[in-house]
């Protein structure tokens, strides 16, 4: 159970991190918001519906949803994230958005909208019963489940680096969600969105990211690798793969 102190600490973190997070979000080249909105519209989930976006932050999904849905409420623990969402809604000319300052733990376990949605909300599988109760017709969970980078993988193997904790590279939790939803008596279905991108990387970028964390032996290997890779080029290309999975289920129809 999340207590009030935990919620306050989480809110403070996201209030402080909000500007950097929104900047990174705005720079993202991933089409997941467009693609997921189109998919939910095709499934007749969004059209003319009311939507509660739990942990909706600065409106990354809520704003495109609002172009299709009747009304969208962004619920978030961070006042600063909601401030960015309000600004984005005004700039987009959207008037069917509501903003709710609330921790997920404080939401009452009863229907709040036709559709309850969350993307990357750190839910435990045991919390999916309450999450389901927030929607009248549908519940939708979106997660990043895979992220690979060719250069990072090569360096991790070369230098024997420990795995990096990456919230966008966690397929296990999604499998646990599927099992938990089925145990609640629902019949979920899934949709996968996969993206392949490239990024140009400089020697300086890699040195800034790694150099201070390496042992002397690793430093020597790293410098040799850099010399070989950048012998004829100022930049090298990283191949990146991102995969998202969306879990959907009807609620209230057991």
UniProtKB/TrEMBL annotation:
- Keyword list, A-Z: Methyltransferase, Transferase
Q: Name one GO biological process term.
A: methylation
**Coiled coil, from the record:** none
Q: Where is the Methyltransferase domain?
A: 51-129
Q: What domain of life does the native source organism fall in?
A: Bacteria
InterPro entries in the record, alphabetically? Methyltransf_25 (IPR041698), SAM-dependent_MTases_sf (IPR029063)
Molecular function per GO? methyltransferase activity
- Keyword Transcription regulation part of the UniProt annotation: no
Q: Report the protein name in the record.
A: Methylase
What species does this protein belong to?
Loigolactobacillus coryniformis subsp. torquens DSM 20004 = KCTC 3535
Identify the taxonomic lineage of the organism of origin: Bacteria, Bacillati, Bacillota, Bacilli, Lactobacillales
């Amino acid at each position: 159970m999340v207590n009030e102190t935990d919620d306050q600490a989480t809110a403070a973190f996201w209030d402080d991190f909000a500007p950097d997070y929104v900047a990174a979000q705005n720079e993202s080249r991933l089409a997941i918001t467009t693609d997921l909105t189109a998919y939910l519209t095709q499934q007749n989930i969004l059209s003319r519906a009311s939507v509660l976006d739990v942990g909706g932050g600065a409106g990354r999904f809520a704003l495109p949803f609002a172009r299709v849905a009747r009304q969208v409420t962004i619920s978030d623990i961070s006042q600063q994230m909601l401030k960015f969402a309000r600004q984005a809604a005004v700039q987009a000319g959207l008037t069917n958005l509501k903003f709710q300052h609330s921790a997920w733990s404080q939401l009452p376990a009863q229907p709040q909208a036709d559709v309850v949605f969350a993307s990357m909300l750190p839910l435990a599988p045991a919390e999916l019963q309450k999450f389901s109760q927030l929607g009248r017709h549908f519940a939708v969970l979106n997660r990043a489940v895979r992220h690979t980078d060719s250069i990072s993988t090569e360096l991790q193997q070369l230098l024997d680096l420990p795995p990096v904790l990456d919230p966008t590279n966690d397929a296990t939790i999604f499998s646990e969600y599927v099992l938990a939803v089925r145990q609640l008596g629902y019949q979920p279905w899934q949709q996968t969105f996969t993206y392949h991108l490239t990024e140009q990387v400089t020697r300086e970028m890699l040195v800034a990211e790694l150099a201070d964390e390496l042992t002397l032996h690793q430093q020597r290997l790293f410098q040799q690798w850099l010399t070989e890779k950048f012998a004829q080029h100022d930049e090298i290309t990283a191949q990146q793969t991102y995969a998202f999975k969306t879990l959907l289920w009807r609620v209230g129809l057991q």
